[in-house]
Amino acid sequence: MLVFMLDEKFTPTRTKEMAQVHPFGGRRGGQKTASGAAGQQDEVKVFSLQRGVWTAPSEEVFLRHNFSRDAGATESLTVCYRIRFERYVDLSTHLSYSITEENYDILGFYSTEEQLLTWVLGQSQITDLPKDAWPVFPETWHHLCHVLGQTSYKVYWQGELYYTKAMEAGWAMPLNGTLVVGQEQDLLGGGFDLTQILMGDMTQLSVWDRALTAAEVGRIAACQEVGRGNVLSSDVTELEVVGPVKQQWEKIGTFCRSSSHYFLMLPEMRSITASVSLCNIFNATVATPSSDSDNQNLLDEMLPFSDVCFPSSTWKTWIGISDEHEEDVWRDLSTQEPVEFLRFGALFPHGGRIYNCACLMVDGFWIDTDCTNTNRRCTACQVQYSDFLRLRGLCFDSEHQTRFRSDGYMGGRPFFRGFYDMLVTWNAQQKEWKLHSVAENRTLASLSTVSLKSYPLGRHTWVTHEELCGRPPGSGIVLSLSPCNSQYHFMCRSGNCIAHNKRCNLRYDCLDGSDEANCDMILVGKEYQRQIPPAGPSNSALYLVPSLTLTRIASVDDINMAITLEFDVVLTWTDNRVTLKHLSESGGILTSAGAAKMWTPRYQFTNLEGGQVKLLEESVVATTANNATFPDYNSEDMDITYPGSENKLSIIQHYTAKITCDLRFLAYPFDIQVCGIDIHLPSTYGAYVSFSTAEGKMSYTGQEDLALYTVKSARIGKHSTRTAISFEFALHRRPGVAILSTFLPSILLLLVSWATLFVRFSDLNVRAIMSLTTLLVLYTLFANQTNALPKTSEVKLIDIWFFYIIFLLFINIIFHIFVAEEDALTGTAPKNLIRIAPVESKNPGPPLLRRRILPASGGTGTPSFRSPLSFSISCSGSPCFF
């Protein structure tokens, strides 16, 4: 047997209560028979191999049975046993059976981490189940039956069919070999390996030369039958015991009555609120007994600490119930469900609004008390056997090795035992927590605590005593011990667990606020060069996906051919040199400090009006959260990371700018102007960075109908290239304004001019005034319209329209002139027409003014003229001069 001599500082200390921990049927209690004495009919023999806190793995501890060499073979076989693990090794060996030096693996049953492994007739059988298909935990009993028929192999776990596989008929199992319990044979009866042993207990080992039925297996698993085999029974057959193997007789019912939980005392005074929080970090709840036996187990766990748990009081430890929400309705603090089992003393509970919590007294009864923070008692946590803690920050070979559980006490406080050979204990003299390797007999690291009430839970910096995971002695190593599962949780510095989506969400979800610390979303290596652009896939050119959102068109200056815009430019790319953290389902926004660590694309606008551009806001965001990488089981940093190669980064820049636009007015006022925002990449990028125009897009989110235009057709320009891209949009002039302000007035003026044709020929002056006035008004309208447009040499549609209308008015005036001249030459001037000429003129010449004189009222043939001066004249056919 391999024995390690422990130095003085490594000597284990056991408190009084540790000696009471029973190795069988739970942590305490159970009826037992002295070792070596014959058991009763309802008792079975339990073998304990390599148990103990400080027990180092050995090749010289096992059970062995040599079958008769004259025994024959069987064509059916059943092997059943009940097994419990205290610790694990790389390959926990249940039993192995060999018949010759060559056939040393004819039959073998093993387990590794959370997977059951079997070898039958030299071949591995359970090969198609996942690695976590057999979740077993320390200090829990498991009943296994392996049933081999001619055509099938079946495995029963806890009485239920767990696995089945067809077998080829015609096999036979020789029964003249050597059976070894607790060691894996690489030779007949030997060839053992330290990493292939059993550190735990085995009982009810039986072998039958027939296939048991499912009903028979179920009765044995349910403790209804002892189930002793006709070929071998560990209760009857004399097994060769090698090494310090402890043997104990146990009642068969013990294995089916074992509790699913145990109690753990934390012998420091604290409030009920602090107790609830601390038990949560232990992956437990405040103790809430559910039966008299459960209450007795809690009392047994508490009594050894009665001298340190409020010595002057009989109220020792908290019970995890409260009636604060509803008087006399006691609820479990962890589930808020009403509890059925209560064990208050005869005079209790007091009731009332103050006494809403409960404590366990030294006589086993409960008493109600207040829940204030000044009321402090010891804490008893209720721990499920299936629950455990995880130690992160070391260099374990598998996740299973990171698992620890609280088990017993040293130095008056709980210690933490790894599922394998690690151990964390409290050194009362040095007031330090120690990390040990039991297999190597080494103290690896220590932790000095600020408070003597604290535990090594959460994240702390330990000091190495020897070389540890590449760190020299005396250096610091950050370790974390908590129940947090990195697949679902982020660990607060204190050891509490929160969901990953609460990390860096701008809310304090950890009591210590550590969830909002170190929220930088970007990680870059030491060799990262910010000025060098990242490469694309397979070291190709990096393609930037451009996007522009035009949010507002502030003004359109037709005269200067310029447009004032507000828009967002978005360039998207990937960087395989960075790692992202703290992303939500839709990504996340990088801080300015984070964005400053990495390369971001640069570009320039090439059609600005006088360089008028202003950057209003800039942000760098991760737009996806793909391929989440959960922390390695050895990493104490429990943040989820995302590879930069799988997640897109975008730089979003919000601008206001005045750009030039080559406006074309040929079709004015029915013109469509196509304008664009032109962006070029710097020439220094060369062929390493390009635009992906095929994936680019543009959109307009502002008001579609402007004062004079309607915005349509926002798109990527057809002539965009890999280094230059144009984001185009079309401005359709709204014709309604032009119709009301230009065409309709000009048509009305034309109609007015045409209306003069219906005035009497004798009223030539009226015709002339109206025609000339319409012409002048139309020209003024034309001049105003021309001044509203830029000076260009091209002939516009509006010019043609006005030319056409003016031409019609001109024709109308010419018509009036020719009609008047025709009247003068032919003498066909109308009667009652007065010709007015200067008095000095002997020849009045052409008529300058013609005014019809209406006959005077009541007279005949005598024309009269009325004016504001109210005078009248009479003419007798000859011209009148006045």
UniProtKB/TrEMBL annotation:
What Pfam family does this protein match (any one)? Answer: Ldl_recept_a
Q: Where is the C-type lectin domain?
A: 246-371
Disulfide pairs? 492-510, 504-519
Q: InterPro entries in the record, alphabetically?
A: C-type_lectin-like, C-type_lectin-like/link_sf, ConA-like_dom_sf, CTDL_fold, LDL_receptor-like_sf, LDLR_class-A_CS, LDrepeatLR_classA_rpt, Neur_chan_lig-bd
A single GO cellular-component term on record: membrane
Q: Which domain of life is it from?
A: Eukaryota
Is this entry keyworded Nucleotide-binding?
A: no
Q: Where in the cell is it found?
A: Membrane
Q: What is its main location?
A: membrane
One of the record's GO molecular function terms: transmembrane signaling receptor activity
Domain Pentraxin (PTX), chain residue ranges per copy: 48-256
Where would you find the membrane-spanning parts of this chain? 736-757, 764-782, 802-820
Q: What keywords are annotated for this sequence in UniProt?
A: Disulfide bond, Membrane, Receptor, Transmembrane, Transmembrane helix
The keyword Membrane appears for this protein: yes
Topology with respect to the bilayer: Multi-pass membrane protein
Query: What is this protein's name?
Result: Putative gamma-aminobutyric acid receptor subunit delta
